[in-house]
Design a protein that fits this description.
The protein has 309 residues and is an alpha+beta fold. The chain is built from 8 helices and 14 strands. The chain has one domain: Jelly Rolls (Sandwich). β8 and β9 form a beta hairpin. α2 packs across α5 and α3 packs across α5. Belongs to the iron/ascorbate-dependent oxidoreductase family. Pathway: Alkene biosynthesis; ethylene biosynthesis via 2-oxoglutarate.
Length: 309
């Protein structure tokens, strides 16, 4: 295993998008190293248009500014649909701690016969804005998945083809500012310690900060927002798929900056529900046999969501 650096790596993705085979291979190698050492990295030059990102954050702010009645009209109902508004303290990412001091809104690429998204009637522009942003996130995630496949000596479409039904979730997040008089319960935080459930996550942050990542040594360090980058982390299913070649790293959002409200947008990239997640051939050998039995990606997601709400 490579020696861990002392800071979450920043990787320029533009040579993978526009470069020659050697440059693409070099970027993929950097992403493999970061995913092994950290399970997290900042990705610069990923091709996400800055205007789309600004519009998505503005739409998120408009959504969370709606009245409680308007938000409850599009409330989250079940793990099976996993759509709609989630109120403050409704979710508990760390089941041993109080509910998280955040509110969220989940949506996803719509599928024929699948659960529909819930759209607030008060914001007619919200739907086209989010649908456009979803397409940009899918394109960015597919690029990351292509690089991961190359890094693991697999065909370039290895992961993309296992995600082509777009069973992803886009999550808008708002962490309200807390008054100076607020007294936190024991163990309370803006988002409890957790790992992500799927294959990869794209996280877009505002400037407020608060995200922390746990190192292999058990130390918590700040994932300070860096303009022009998206934070990429690997989740539980990618860790299983790669037999711990890529790690799924605990992270949280602390209370230290709770006097400021915080917005972030997370795109949770999840394999097709029918995908059978089994150890990749290049990720095991006689000294490192497969650690996990195969599992259905859809069953894994339902188990994790039902444990969270």
């Amino acid at each position: 295993m490579a020696e861990q650096q002392n800071a979450i790596p920043v990787i320029d993705f533009s040579p993978f998008i526009d470069g020659n085979p050697a440059e693409r291979k070099a970027v993929a190698a950097q992403m493999r190293q970061a995913s092994s050492d950290w399970g997290f990295f900042y990705l610069a030059g990923c091709g996400m248009p800055e205007g789309n990102l600004r519009e998505a954050f503005a739409a998120s702010q408009a959504l969370f500014a709606l009245s409680d009645d308007a938000k409850q009209a599009v409330a989250w109902q079940s793990a099976e649909s996993n759509r709609g508004y989630v109120g403050v303290r409704r979710e508990r990412l760390d089941p041993s701690k109080p509910g998280d001091l955040k509110e969220a809104f989940n949506l996803a690429p719509e599928q024929p016969g699948g659960a529909p998204n819930l759209w607030p009637v008060e914001l007619p522009a919200f739907r086209p804005q989010m649908e456009d942003f979803l397409q940009q996130c899918v394109a960015t995630a597919d690029g990351v998945l292509q690089a991961f496949a190359l890094a693991l000596q697999q065909p370039e479409d290895f992961f993309v083809s296992a995600h082509n039904q777009h069973h992803h979730t886009l999550r808008l997040l708002h962490y309200p500012a807390l008054p100076d008089s607020f007294n936190a319960q024991a163990g309370e935080s803006r988002a409890g310690e957790h790992t992500d459930y799927g294959s990869i996550t794209l996280l877009f942050q505002d400037t407020a900060g608060g995200l922390e990542v746990r190192t292999r040594a058990g130390e918590w360090i700040a994932a300070t927002p860096i303009p022009g980058t998206v934070v990429v982390n690997t989740g539980d299913l990618m860790q299983r798929w790669t037999n711990h070649v890529f790690c799924s790293t605990p992270h949280r959002v602390n209370l230290r900056s709770s006097h400021r409200e915080r917005y972030s947008i997370a795109f949770f990239c999840h394999p097709n529900h029918s995908a059978n997640i089994r150890c990749i051939s290049t990720c095991s050998d006689a000294e490192n046999p497969p650690r996990y039995a195969p599992i259905s990606a859809g069953n894994h997601l339902l188990e994790r969501l039902n444990a969270t709400y």
